[in-house]
Every structure is written in structure tokens, then in C-alpha cells.
Automatic annotation (TrEMBL), chain B:
Organism name: Candidatus Shapirobacteria bacterium GW2011_GWE1_38_10
Compartments in which it is found: Cell inner membrane; Cell membrane
PROSITE patterns: ABC_TM2
Name of the protein: Transport permease protein
Transmembrane segments: 31-55, 61-82, 105-129, 141-161, 173-192, 198-217, 229-247
Length: 235, 258
């Protein structure tokens, strides 16, 4: 596989909200991202920061392919797994094992890959005999473990992390951090949205600062300091 | 399926897995489980049959027997479309969080209901074989075609309504209002020869008319006029293509509206 360069180019605006109120045709356009262009290369570890509503999640959703651009261009290479919500595809009435089946396909595995990895997933999730129980009997921590185990088994080239990495108990946190470090060492691309500065400091080497749909800064770790002091000044 | 390439195979795997999930989860907490797929049309047959046998004169076969396969097919159609219309809203959690072929949600409902239809239909056919005399088995060869047609029609309408319902939630109310009317615009409880001739052309605009006609022709040997079937066929194509086009246009932006 030649997977050397990854290009992301986003231009212009993306209208996300056009409300049509009962024939009054009152239209309101809101641009979540206003002309952002960036290129992320394979193996880069990028943290995305910005205040609430600055377009971080929209950017990740576009990269993950969950939503589509209104204009501009997006190019991605390799398998993307988004950890925006680990338990998105879970069905409460089905057992853990049945849920692995559907979520593994959702994470981009094919059937044979899933079959060869199912033992590994169950072992990594470490939820004991609950694996045969319906999902509504699970605690939220167990769901998180199961979801993370599936996402990790998918062996993605690009990993997208939202805030959720900071959830779960200490044991799980240690385990998931270890796995993310492992991915980083393997040269996988990492994209993180977080307000958890310590995490960004530890895992990222490039920071993109978004504000109101525009890119404020793109560069090294020093941006983090600027962002933090700027945040304090403005209150 | 060896003739598919990797991407298509993956797509089918996903749609089938979603269908399996749908089938497995449907009757999980129900004591009667799978019995419901038979119980439901059976009850309908008893109630509707009790009333309508006095209005609809069918000489060749028992009215209850005439009613049953029609109800199975109609229930598949109406239940699938009613369930599918608000489906993208109901599954918003999944759509906002993951990338996957969006049509699989709608298709999994179609296929899981088709699975249920086939089970109850097979049981009905078995009963027909045991009870009825002079069954023309060669005509049964048409049945797979009729089932295929029904699936295409149902998928097309499901895609159309569910895609539009993402932006205009009125569609859901509209479908709920139309379905009971559509039931009477389809010859489920009656036969076409009870209607005046001029209405025949119009009623074939409803593709369900032709589909039910095909089923009854092959199971009961009831007469069917072949020319107006073309009208139903053209209507089905128009509906299916519209459904697919609207879905393709809308589906990349589902996340923005839910």
C-alpha cells in the first residue's frame, strides 16, 4: 500500500442550518466552517482546539465522512476509524457478542477479518461473562470498553478521537492510553479534539486552533500556550 | 458471492448484518416470538373475512383463503414503509457518529420484513398443497418474480419517503394518513371484476394491484388481464428511480438535518 501523503483541502463555507418555517421561507444560513485549507500527512499527530461551537466537530465529521462539504474538496487515504462515539451502533437488546458483529463491520472490518478477531476483541474488552448478556444490562463503562476494543481491532490508519477518551475508570484509561501510544509509535495518523490540554501536550506535535469556523493558527505546540493564556485574558 | 468485487461484497455483508440484527432484535422479549408473524395476519383475516364475505362474492374459493395471502403481502408493504419513513430520524445516533452506507438502514428493514413474509408465505403454500386439489405448480414459478417486484417497489418507496422525511417531517404524517386509504385502493379484500371496466386502467396506476394479481393468478389460478400490468410496471420503475435519485441527492447531508 502506498500511503505516503494525505491531503485534506477544505474551502469555503459549509451551511449546516437552513430553517424553513411553515411557508414563510425564512432562511437562515450558518457557516460552521468558513474556508479552511489544511494538509495532514501520514503519521502526524494533530490536536484541534477552540472554544465551543468553533467547528471542531464539524471538521472531524467531514474528515470521517459522516457529513459532506457544500463546496471545496476533501481527499483522504487509508482506513479511518472515528472514536467520536464508541457505542454508536450498539443495540440494547442484543448480546455483547452480537453487537461486536455489527459494530466491527461499522468500523470498517470485513466479515472474515471480524471472525478472526472476535476472540481478541472479547479478550481486550475484558467484560467477563457479560459478553453473552443483552447490552442493556451493561454499565456505561462496560459499553465503553467494548466499543474501544472494537475500534482498536479495526486497525485503522487514521484515528479520530473526540473528548470521550477521558471517560471510563482508571484501569480503562491506562489501557486506552497505552493503545493510543502504541498506534502513535506505529506511525498512524492521529486527530484529537479535546479540551484536555495535558493529553494534547503529551500526544500531539501539531495544533490547529479554530475559532468561529476559521483557522486562527496552525503550527507547533507553542499555540497551546497562546490559546491558554488568551483564554484566560478574555475571561 | 464470488461474482462481486471486494467493495460490493463488503456492502452486502453490511446490509446482511444489519438485517440479521433487525431480525434478531425484533422478537427478543416477546413470549410468542416468531408466532406473531403468523398470528397477526390470521387475526386480521378472521375479522375482515367475517365482515367482507357478505359484500364480496367469490365463488371459486373460500373467502378467508382468498384473503390470507393478500393480507400477508399488504402487511409487508405497509408495515415496511410505515416503519422506514421515520427511520433516519430514529437512527440519528448512528448517523451522527459513523460513516456507513446510509441505504443499509432502510434496506435492512425491507429485507428483515421480507424474511418474515417468506416464512409465513411458505407455511401458507404448504397448507395450500395439503388442502387444495389441482394446484398448478408451474404457475408457482411466477412467485419469485412477484416477490422481487414487491421488494423493488417497497425499497423505492422506503428510500423516497425516508429521505424526504429527514427535511420535511410532514412526510411521516402523510404516510400514516395515506396507508389505510391505499389499503382500499388495492384489491386486498375485493377482486377487480367487481369494479366497472373504466376504473381498471386507473387502479393499475397502483403497482400493488398488479403484484397482488400475479400472486392470485399463480396460487389460485384467478384470471388476470396482462396488458394493464405494463402500467404498474412503468409506475414501479418511476417510483424506484425517483426514490434512488432523491436518496442519492439527500443522503450525504442527512447529518445536517437530524
Amino acid at each position: 500500500m502506498e500511503n505516503v501523503v494525505k491531503n485534506y483541502r477544505l474551502f469555503h463555507e459549509k451551511a449546516t442550518l437552513i430553517e424553513n418555517i411553515l411557508g414563510k421561507s425564512k432562511k437562515e444560513k450558518f457557516a460552521a466552517l468558513k474556508g479552511i485549507s489544511l494538509e495532514i500527512r501520514k503519521g502526524e499527530k494533530v490536536g484541534i482546539i477552540g472554544s465551543n461551537g468553533s467547528g471542531k466537530t464539524t471538521l472531524l465529521k467531514i474528515i470521517a465522512g459522516i457529513t459532506t462539504l457544500n463546496s471545496g474538496k476533501l481527499l483522504t487515504e487509508g482506513k479511518i476509524v472515528s472514536l467520536i462515539d464508541l457505542s454508536a451502533g450498539f443495540h440494547p437488546e442484543l448480546t455483547g457478542e452480537e453487537n461486536i458483529y455489527i459494530n466491527a463491520l461499522l468500523a470498517g472490518m470485513d466479515r472474515s477479518e471480524m471472525k478472526s478477531k472476535i476472540k481478541e476483541i472479547i479478550k481486550y474488552a475484558d467484560i467477563g461473562k457479560f459478553i453473552d448478556a443483552p447490552l442493556y444490562t451493561y454499565s456505561s463503562g462496560m459499553k465503553l470498553r467494548l466499543g474501544f476494543a472494537i475500534a482498536v481491532a479495526a486497525n485503522p490508519d487514521i484515528i479520530i478521537l473526540d473528548e470521550e477518551v477521558s471517560a471510563g475508570d482508571e484501569d480503562f484509561q491506562r489501557k486506552s492510553m497505552k493503545k493510543i501510544d502504541e498506534f502513535v509509535r506505529e506511525g498512524k495518523t492521529l486527530l484529537v479534539v479535546s479540551h484536555w490540554m495535558d493529553f494534547l501536550k503529551k500526544h500531539c506535535e501539531r495544533i490547529i486552533w479554530l475559532d468561529k469556523g476559521k483557522m486562527v493558527a496552525d503550527g507547533g505546540m507553542r499555540i497551546l500556550n497562546r490559546y491558554q493564556s488568551g483564554g484566560k485574558n478574555s475571561g | 458471492m464470488f461474482w462481486l468485487n471486494n467493495k460490493q461484497k463488503k456492502w452486502w455483508d453490511f446490509v446482511l448484518a444489519m438485517t440479521e440484527k433487525e431480525i434478531k432484535s425484533r422478537y427478543k422479549m416477546a413470549v410468542f416470538g416468531f408466532l406473531w408473524i403468523f398470528l397477526n395476519p390470521l387475526l386480521q383475516m378472521l375479522v375482515l373475512g367475517l365482515i367482507f364475505q357478505f359484500f364480496v362474492p367469490i365463488k371459486t374459493i373460500n373467502y378467508f383463503e382468498f384473503l390470507f395471502p393478500g393480507l400477508l403481502i399488504w402487511n409487508f408493504f405497509s408495515y415496511t414503509i410505515t416503519k422506514n419513513t421515520p427511520m433516519y430520524i430514529n437512527e440519528r445516533a448512528l448517523i451522527q457518529k459513523a460513516k456507513f452506507p446510509r441505504e443499509s438502514i432502510v434496506l435492512s428493514i425491507v429485507f428483515s420484513n421480507l424474511f418474515h413474509l417468506l416464512i409465513s408465505f411458505l407455511m401458507f403454500m404448504l397448507w395450500t398443497l395439503l388442502v387444495r386439489e389441482g394446484v398448478d405448480l408451474t404457475r408457482w414459478l411466477v412467485l419469485p418474480i412477484a416477490v422481487g417486484w414487491l421488494t423493488v417497489l417497497t425499497s423505492g418507496l422506503s428510500l423516497l419517503f425516508s429521505s424526504l422525511n429527514v427535511k420535511w417531517r410532514d412526510i411521516n404524517f402523510g404516510v400514516q394518513a395515506i396507508m389505510p386509504l391505499w389499503f382500499y385502493a388495492t384489491p386486498v379484500v375485493y377482486t377487480l371484476d367487481l369494479l366497472p371496466k373504466w376504473i381498471e386502467r386507473i387502479i393499475y396506476l397502483n403497482p400493488m394491484t398488479a403484484i397482488l394479481g400475479l400472486f392470485r393468478w399463480s396460487i389460485f389460478g384467478m384470471a388476470i388481464s396482462w396488458e394493464p400490468i405494463v402500467i404498474s410496471l412503468v409506475m414501479t420503475l418511476i417510483i424506484f428511480v425517483t426514490g434512488v435519485v432523491v436518496f442519492k441527492k439527500e443522503s450525504p447531508f442527512f447529518d445536517d438535518w437530524i
